[in-house]
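Is it possible to get an amino acid sequence alongside its tokenized fold?
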Amino acid sequence: MPTIYDNMRTKLEDGLNETLKVCHKSDFCVGYFNLRGWRKIASNIDKWSGEENNQCRSMIGMQKSGRDIIREYFNIDRVQDIDRRKAKQIEKQLAREFREQLTIGFPTNEDEIGLRILK
């Protein structure tokens, strides 16, 4: 049964950990993925083998800036197929956004451990 965690009525970390304790696999669809936040649920996922029906799958859709949305809307070539070159550009942009996450604030030892586990 899908559950939406809004951090108001249901805290994401608490809800996910309670659910993951009794699961053998998970599928996540998230709008924003915080690399440092992974450590908060990792212990409940790392126990899975990674084999079919015993794994975690995540679909990540990073939000676009208002400027990017407007630029796309007014783009003459609105209908574009994604070729390899465009896919590579998107991949590089996503990696750049993840790197920028890591430059914010002061990383803790727990953050570093969590990132190594995610890796």
Notes: DSSP finds five helices and two strands in the chain.
